[in-house]
């Protein structure tokens, strides 16, 4: 039996023992009493009775154990033309000071702090400072609208919000402060204080008595020590798209998270202390939480924080420049970024001038890795390109080719095999396990391993209903797929209304809610259609209220604007068509899957349950080819 098979078997056969061994790589203030606590199943808890501090494990511990002068963080920002480097000692000191700022503002263990910040070092410092004092951070991605931010403020009820005067998108300066002010106005929860990072590119007007300038606050702050917290205490809440207007607040613990992430660096990514890890994502997403901030630091690596795009900052050679300049050993990004590079530099010419000798592996996740992108990346890099599958909910990989534990044969189109700890199964609708090769719902038998979600913030019921009720004893991933005879899993896409636009997870249901709120719209459908660059993009179809007399181009413009304003630019909602009717089943369900299939150019059969097949006939020319609108 190879190392992977042995580890996998042990992880499922005796999970408590397996994870107790992994937990030795973490510093505990009080050792756990129970490794796997099933006392309140299906709410499993890891390392109960244990106490630790995640920030201590990510920073202080390395400072004390000989890494004080090693780089912890490299900030590389082509959009501002700046770079900054922080050793472990410097990052610890900044973090301890900002923890003091938060303390001074009355933030205590268990209090929530919302971070609405761009990709700047202060974001990493703020996250770790929360962890240091046992506060719970919730990072909100900068591409979300004030309305979405307000929803999160009302749900998390933070004492403090940390934000910045602006973010920079390519060459555009996006002022964050007006967006924050609007969100605070909209929210019913009243935030105590806001700490604002003033960036040279935009000056934010501070509200006296509420807003505090980051630099001023830091100048007077007293460093604060790490506070031990329970392993089961929440470290952060990260909101992700659900099927309703209310996002799901995924709750992550301290103990399980630290153990699992630390384990993943060695076993999944094959990266050691002292090496350089770069996740080219955004801290607003789970990839950023886990693999820009926590995992590389827990493992004693140097992490790269990149404020830029794969293309246009300044060109499609940007990733190769960063990887070469900082001697990156492992690079992690989304397939869409590679597609963007490929589109602009198909021959890989911009890669040639760079010395990528340090780079061992390219990891890709966040959306399906299409074989064309996989092959192109493999060919131009001449290194393993590793697809792996996971979600905000799990926080770390479910299916991967474990580069540290035992590198395996790569089968293009499959992220490879189940990671130790995850008992992955494909389920058929009636609840049986699907035979090899047969498509079904990808589920994971409980308990999930450490580091995965504890519940949804203040909503245990929704957690059970969304994830645990479809197949009792199993977590429902929301993705469909297959497992072959060798245990290789293929992920075929979401089975719900979630779409993946440029690696960003969005709900079409929420977009439909926005469209339906327009006074002229009777009903709406939004489907995610295939897109060469972004993987998927949303397309909307609306039916007008009878007797409505509107100018269609004006209406379309209003609808596109409404989605942008209410959800955010990140929704990339640019196409909407007015149609006579939507195709439905006899029971009134909109046939979104059929619409998507036609739009994608697939050979789709008309479902026998359709109410009126002529509706679909009328829709076909509109669905295909896409009618791009300005
Ligand atoms: N703050 C404000 N606005 C933001 C934003 C942020 N943090 N992030 C994105 N936006 C805006 C963009 O400016 C754009 O606005 P526009 O419609 O006015 O042009 C819109 O949201 C869509 O952004 P994006 O999805 O980034 O598309 P793009 O066309 O600007 O760039 C890619 C396309 C492929 C280059 C880009 O999506 C990319 O780098 N993707 C990598 C994905 C990734 O990191 N995913 C995380 C999971 S691993
Ligand atoms: P997020 O929670 O934003 O990380 O998005 C998770 C979703 O992205 C998953 O449920 C999948 O639909 C999709 N996804 C992530 N990684 C992959 C992958 N490697 N292959 C296919 N789909 C993926």
Automatic annotation (TrEMBL):
Residues 61-446 form the AMP-dependent synthetase/ligase domain. Residues 511-589 form the AMP-binding enzyme C-terminal domain. PROSITE patterns: AMP_BINDING. Residues 4-58 form the Acetyl-coenzyme A synthetase N-terminal domain. GO terms for molecular function: propionate-CoA ligase activity. CDD domains: PrpE (cd05967). Pfam families: ACAS_N, AMP-binding, AMP-binding_C. GO terms for cellular component: intracellular organelle lumen. Belongs to the ATP-dependent AMP-binding enzyme family. PANTHER family: ACYL-COA SYNTHETASE (PTHR43347), ACYL-COA SYNTHETASE SHORT-CHAIN FAMILY MEMBER 3, MITOCHONDRIAL (PTHR43347:SF3). This is Propionyl-CoA synthetase. It comes from Actinoallomurus bryophytorum.
């Amino acid at each position: 039996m190879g190392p992977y098979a042995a580890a996998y078997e042990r992880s499922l056969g005796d999970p408590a023992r397996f994870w107790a061994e992994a937990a030795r790589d973490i510093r505990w203030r009080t050792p756990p009493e129970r490794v796997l606590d099933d006392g309140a199943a299906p709410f499993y808890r890891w390392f109960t009775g244990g106490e630790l501090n995640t920030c201590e494990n990510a920073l202080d511990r390395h400072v004390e154990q000989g890494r004080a002068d090693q780089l912890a963080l490299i900030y590389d920002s082509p959009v501002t033309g700046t770079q900054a480097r922080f050793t472990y000692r410097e990052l610890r000191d900044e973090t301890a000071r900002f923890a003091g700022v938060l303390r001074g503002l009355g933030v205590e263990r268990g209090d929530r702090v919302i971070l609405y910040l761009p990709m700047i070092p202060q974001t990493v410092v703020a996250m770790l400072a929360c962890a240091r004092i046992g506060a719970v951070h919730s990072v909100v991605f900068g591409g979300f609208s004030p309305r979405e931010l307000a929803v999160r403020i009302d749900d998390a009820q933070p004492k403090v919000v940390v934000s910045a005067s602006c973010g920079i998108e390519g060459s555009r300066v996006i002022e964050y402060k007006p967006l924050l002010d609007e969100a605070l106005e909209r929210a019913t929860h009243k935030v105590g204080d806001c700490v604002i990072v003033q960036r040279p590119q935009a000056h934010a007007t501070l509200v006296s008595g509420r807003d505090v300038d980051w630099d001023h606050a830091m100048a007077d702050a007293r460093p604060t020590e790490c506070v031990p917290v329970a392993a089961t205490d929440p470290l952060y809440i990260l909101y992700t798209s659900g099927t309703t207007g209310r996002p799901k607040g995924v709750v992550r613990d301290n103990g399980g998270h630290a153990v699992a992430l630390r384990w993943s660096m060695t076993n999944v990514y094959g990266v050691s202390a002292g090496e350089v890890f770069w996740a080219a994502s955004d801290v607003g997403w789970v990839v950023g939480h886990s693999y820009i901030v926590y995992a590389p630091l827990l493992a004693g690596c140097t992490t790269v924080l990149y404020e830029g795009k794969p293309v246009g900052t300044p060109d499609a050679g940007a990733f190769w420049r960063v990887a070469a300049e900082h001697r990156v050993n492992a690079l992690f990004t989304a397939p869409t970024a590679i597609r963007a590079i490929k589109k602009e530099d198909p021959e890989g010419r911009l890669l040639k001038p760079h010395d990528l000798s340090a780079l061992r592996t390219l990891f890709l996740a966040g959306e399906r890795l299409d074989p064309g992108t996989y092959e192109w990346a493999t060919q131009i890099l001449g290194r393993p390109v590793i697809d792996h599958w996971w979600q905000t909910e799990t926080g770390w990989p479910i299916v991967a080719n474990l580069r540290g534990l035992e590198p395996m044969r790569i089968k293009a189109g499959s992220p490879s095999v189940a990671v130790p700890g995850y008992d992955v199964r494909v389920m058929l609708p009636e609840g049986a396990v699907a035979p090899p090769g047969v498509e079904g719902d990808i589920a994971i038998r409980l308990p999930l391993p450490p580091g995965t979600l504890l519940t949804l913030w203040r909503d245990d019921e929704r957690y059970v209903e969304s994830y645990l009720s479809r197949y009792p004893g199993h977590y429902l991933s929301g993705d469909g797929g297959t497992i072959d005879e060798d245990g290789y899993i293929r992920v075929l896409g979401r089975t719900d209304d979630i779409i993946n636009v440029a690696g960003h997870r969005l709900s079409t249901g929420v977009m439909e809610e926005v469209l339906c709120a327009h006074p002229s719209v009777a009903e709406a459908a939004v489907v995610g259609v295939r897109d060469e660059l972004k993987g998927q993009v949303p397309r909307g179809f609306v039916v007008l209220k009878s007797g409505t007399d509107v100018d269609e181009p004006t209406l379309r413009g209003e609808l596109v604007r409404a989605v942008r304003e209410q959800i955010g630019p990140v929704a990339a909602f640019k196409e909407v068509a007015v149609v006579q009717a939507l195709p439905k089943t006899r029971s009134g369900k909109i046939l979104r899957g059929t619409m998507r299939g036609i739009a994608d150019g697939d050979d789709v059969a008309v479902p026998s349950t359709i109410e009126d097949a002529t509706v679909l006939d009328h829709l076909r020319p509109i669905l295909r080819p896409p009618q791009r609108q300005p």
